[in-house]
Amino acid sequence: MVAGISPVVLVAEDDRATRESLVTAFELEGYEVLAVGDGARALEALGTADAGVVVLDIGMPEVDGLSVCRRMRARHDHTPVLILTARSEVSDRVSGLDAGADDYLAKPFALDELLARVRALLRRSRYDEPDGILVVGDLRLDESARRVWRAGREIELSKTEFDLLQLLMRNAGVVLDHARIYEHIWNYDFGPDSKNLAVYIGYLRRKLEDEGPTRLIHTVRGVGYTLRAS
Predict the structure, then answer these.
(1) CA atoms of 75 and 73, how far apart (whole Å)
(2) β-bridge mates for residue 8, sequence order
(3) Which three-class secondary structure state does DSSP give residue 202?
(4) With CB atoms counted within 10 Å of each terminal CB, which end of the chain scores lower, N or C?
(5) 53 contacts 23 by C-beta, under 8 angstroms
(6) Assign residue 61 a region: left if phi > 0, alpha if psi is -120 to 50, beta otherwise?
């Protein structure tokens, strides 16, 4: 993507009403939108369009969303992919991530959450470049040097603490559920009874917030965690 040019969102959705509503929503947000109704046309479009992010429905004719994602990754296309599907089981979410998707949203979904997740994917694609700097409020993270500062004070973090904070900052403003965090950080979902994530969130909060600054890491009860400046 060229700086100053609105990102292109490729929407692949076979339901016409859903597809048209997504096009309208993204265009109102200032994105350029390319919309197709099946996986085969999505793969064709990816060969010619410079998409910044792809929104894929799983249950499409011709070629389904998971197959599209697998083919993209097989040809080394690293464009961020958000999977949309009516399937909400953990196994289905894992299948999407294993196929190479970057995020997963079950239908029905809140439009605001979809837009926030797309923004996060676009930010993440920029930060995947060397020397990425993430900034949220007075918190600054240098991805290349693996260093963190809060209000100008450097904070020492373990590898897992750094990786967890990096994930939260890359998705600032988005609520990440427990399963997604476990899969990203530990490559395994320890289940709802595990306290492992809560322990590491506690470690981060003590290091980032014990000196009295505004809280950054917020708990969304029954769902997961989000990082935001206010």
Answers:
(1) 5
(2) 32
(3) helix
(4) C
(5) no
(6) beta
- pLDDT at residue 212 in the model: 61
Q: Rounded CA gap, 143 and 205, in Å?
A: 20
β-strands 153-155, 32-36: how paired? unpaired
Tens-digit pLDDT profile for residues 26-73: 999 999 999 999 999 999 998 888 888 999 998 888 888 899 999 988
What are the residues facing 56 on neighbouring strands?
A: 12, 83
**130 confidence band (pLDDT: 50, 70, 90):** very low
> Which residues have CB under 8 Å from 23's CB, separation 6+?
11, 33, 35
* CA torsion, ordered 226, 173, 80, 89, to nearest 10 deg: 50
Q: Domains in the chain, ordered, with CATH? A: 8-127 (3.40.50.2300), 133-227 (1.10.10.10)
